[in-house]
Sequence to fold (425 residues):
Amino acid sequence: MAVQAIPRAQRRAAQPSFWQRLWDARLAYLYIFPAGVIMFIITFLPILFQVWMSLTDYGVKNLKTGGLGGLLAMVVASFSPEASRPDIPAPSFIGLQNFYQILTNRLALSEYDFWRMLGFNLVWTFINVFFHVVLGVAFAMLLNTKGLFGKRFYRAFYIIPWALPALISGMVWHNMYDKDYGAVNLLTKWKVDWLNETVEPVRRLLQLLGERLGMKSAFQALAGRLDSLSSLIYYLIAFGVVGLIVLLFFLLRKYDPGAGTRAIVLIVAILLGVVALLLIGWKMPYSFYAVLIANIWLGWPFMMTVATGALQGIPEELYEAARIDGASAWQVFWQVTVPLLRPAMIPAIMIGMMMTFNQFNVIYFVTGGNPLHRTEILVTQAFRLVNEQRMYGVAAAFSFIVFVILAALTMVTNRVSRATESYAV
Fold:
């Protein structure tokens, strides 16, 4: 049977025009329009103003703007000095100078190193999200066990860290790590200055091992070798180890998908993850571990809540069918549970990454970036640029850089995890 092709002109005539489609969807646009106007005023206009600020030397002298009219006059005057008004001093347009000073560490700030902060921020984010997801899914599966008594109580009890205001949680953890009166030192009988000690815990551990084994000089030499590594080489090694873990896991999963191999890979990945954490922690002070524990405690209940809801939506018939087919518990987890958890967990992981990357409260109220700004993240540095240094133009450029980094990180995560695709068992 012959198939008659429809001419392109007829197909084009059969399709509704742009104005026709616009008129057909007029009710939807009518509802969207007010929200769009509000979003434009309270979101996009401030972003545009921030972009303009990042290109100027905006400072304290430019704060008095005389209302909206004065603000607009100042923006115009920054590009055209002859249009400036004496009562509204306009900042000077300096182009990309703020961005250049930020990225090349030319800001007149003590202990400022943008790339060290960025490396720490990424390490901080990935380690936290990893533990949030593992603990959250593990506890969700335990709470989803049939016949478990008191499920509702456990679920309500475990979300307490997430339900508490972050300010209160941060201050409580800060007091718990106090050297003289903190709960951690009182319970462990230690005298560790968790928040201000500059000697790394791994170095302290090597010193103790050297003294106990009678090889003090050898362990001191090992510590010296590790100290001689530059920050760039150090972070390259750390991320290289993490990359090898991921590569090993996916290679073995692809070429030997048996359940036994998966169990071995999981164990190896956990062991190598511990090694990577120690490697990363070599350059980290005690305060890094202190704030890491606090943020893991704060973040895993969110993942548990999301995973619990997803697990309750999985039909029991799928598990029964898998068991009838002879699947082991590990195979059921990988072939049934994980694919059906992904649509809920991937967006939760992306939200967790953004929240952890910008986790201001825990860093600021637990460690304050101490010691010597070694636990500072990008968002706390931006806060200090505004509230301590009053370098508003630099702070605007700094915040814009943080926004670009976070947007790129989110897009890469979305692409790698296929978060917007549908899944099937």
